[in-house]
Write a structure and sequence with these properties.
The chain is mostly helical. It is built from 1 helix and no strands.
Length: 40
Amino acid sequence: SPFKVRDNQRPFRTRPPILNINFLKEVAFFIKPVTMIGTI
């Protein structure tokens, strides 16, 4: 049972940060080209 509890707790705790990191990366990809075009 302890293993099941850990497996159930980890996904909820680890998924949000991963999603946030991916979201930040996607935002960076969209912002970088715009800033590059703006500076050029």
